[in-house]
Amino acid sequence: MKRSICTQCKRPLKVCYCHTIQHVDNRWPIHILQHPAESKHAIGTARIASLSLNQCQLQVGENFDDDALNVLQPLLVYPGEHSQNLEELNLLEPQPLLFIDASWRKSRRMLLESPALMQLPKVSFQPEMVSRYRIRKEPDQYALSTLEAIVYALSVLEGNADRYLPLLDSMDWMIEKQIELMGKDVFEKNYKHYRK
After folding, report:
1. What is the pLDDT of residues 116-147, one digit of tens each?
2. Does residue 114 lie within any of the structural domains?
3. Rounded to an integer, what distance in angstroms lies between the CA atom of residue 150 and that of residue 152?
4. How many domains is the chain built from?
5. Which of 20, 26, 176, 185 could make an S-S bridge to 170, C-beta 3.0–4.6 Å?
6. Residue with more model confidence, 118 or 179
7. Is 148 inside any structural domain?
């Protein structure tokens, strides 16, 4: 029997989070390059950003072509020794921000295999918030999901954290629904110790 899938969030209708989505005007455009494997995860967060933010494009693939990057002229949000601190950016006009939505291993590979991505100016940050994404096995509690990283970056750059809280509310609803479906015992056994 085929499951009915929401055309917006791409999730089964019984776990569709579209009713939680609130549209937010962001001044800094967001572009997300999502690894194909990540696009298949039912608990991915990038789609919440693409549905919520008025200026957000989500592209599934493993690289942008040079022409697209030249048109965008984005800042790549990615850590590294040649990365400028996000809090120290002093730009008069907003610039597109590019996020890679993939596991750390796959995002590193995407970067290394794409000279155009490697040449982009990079910005990064040290998050002050503990991740609210409780259903992934991350050893570091400060490892943020793609959505949390986007919310943090926009909050810093636009000086308004409250504006982007509705995006995290949608993520929280999605997580709670997933925990409900898997059962508290399964959650406690498999995920609880990853979040202190």
Report:
1. 898 999 999 987 777 777 666 555 555 788 99
2. yes
3. 5
4. 1
5. 20
6. 118
7. yes
